[in-house]
Design a protein that fits this description.
Elements: H1 3-32, H2 34-49, H3 67-89, H4 92-99, H5 102-113, H6 120-136, H7 141-144, H8 150-174, H9 180-194, H10 214-238, H11 241-248, H12 250-266, H13 275-295
Helix pairs in contact: 1-2, 1-10, 1-11, 1-12, 2-3, 2-9, 2-10, 3-8, 3-9, 4-8, 4-12, 4-13, 5-8, 5-11, 6-13, 12-13
């Protein structure tokens, strides 16, 4: 994969993710449920990614190394659970920028696990990120009681960022041990199997999902699956997890833009927020993006 494609894939994934997360938020509020939304998205990913076996040229590799894509599939599964919990508990324009802190966690994990030196720029980026997170969580006194649900959103979003950071580093480091066309289908087959656990938490069977939630649920799940495919291909074939995630993190800005521009038309509650709150979210998202650029 050439460098242009390596940058283009995460750029597309960032926009597709913001749109998919916004649509899934609508599906969840209409009775789709976060567990069922995550299950459908993971199932689509697992099925589509098996197509890479048709590209497999039969290169030899040690099947014991398949433990690495299975591990990545498990952390990916946990990250998806945390993501959909974040989308259920609060606003997309808060959750998505916080999910962008993943690249900071990648940087920290690279330093701790891979024993890389930690330059001053990394600490400066971490400080900017903390300020940005604080701004995203800010609420005027008149709304603090009403919007305390944003605290779980912040928790689940950060948990998701940590889990996906671990997934990306595992993919980056371990995908060289076996052909990508074998690594990717094993990874997503395993996360699909782990996703069967979600069915234990369904409030009701899939067939009882309200009719008006199905279109939003299917489209949102398909978009989340599509962006996952773009990121998996970029990480496996191109590497450079930190750089790829810089471009991918434009999803934080896209989520705020979508909330401002089409939130009311799509029936999102955050479209009714005061202008001051949306301005602070734009500022918080911008600081997170600046933190990422400083770090790498």
């Amino acid at each position: 994969m050439n460098q242009t494609a390596g940058w283009l894939l995460p750029a597309i994934a960032g926009l597709v993710y913001a749109l998919g997360a916004t649509i899934l938020k609508i599906a969840i509020t209409r009775g789709g449920g976060p567990w069922r939304a995550a299950f459908l998205s993971n199932l689509l990913l697992a099925v589509v990614m098996q197509g890479f076996w048709f590209r497999y040229q039969g290169e030899s590799f040690d099947w014991w190394q398949a433990g690495w894509p299975i591990l990545a599939g498990f952390t990916f599964f946990l990250g998806q659970v945390a993501t959909f919990q974040a989308l259920q508990s609060g606003h997309v324009s808060v959750a998505t920028p916080l999910l962008g802190s993943k690249v900071l966690w990648i940087t920290v994990m690279s330093a701790v696990v891979l024993r890389q030196p930690v330059p001053v720029e990394w600490w400066a980026g971490a400080l900017l990120a903390l300020i940005g997170i604080g701004i995203l969580g800010y609420q005027p006194r008149s709304r603090r009681t009403l919007d305390q649900a944003q605290l779980p959103t912040i928790f689940w979003s950060l948990a998701s960022a940590v889990l996906f950071a671990a997934t990306d580093l595992t993919v980056q480091e371990a995908s060289t041990l076996m052909p990508p066309d074998a690594f990717l289908p094993i990874l997503f087959a395993s996360q699909g199997l782990f996703s069967l656990i979600m069915t234990r938490f369904f409030r009701s069977p899939l067939r009882l999902i309200p009719r008006d939630a199905w279109p939003w649920l299917l489209v949102g799940a398909a978009l989340i699956a599509a962006q996952g495919i773009c990121m998996a291909i970029a990480l496996t074939w191109f590497g450079k997890a930190a750089e790829i995630n810089i471009i991918y993190n434009t999803r934080g800005l896209w989520s705020v833009v979508l909330a401002i521009c089409v939130g009311r038309w799509l029936g999102l509650g955050e479209a009714d927020l005061q202008g001051k709150i949306m301005v602070t979210r734009v500022l918080g998202a911008g600081l997170l993006l600046a933190a990422i650029w400083v770090v790498v």
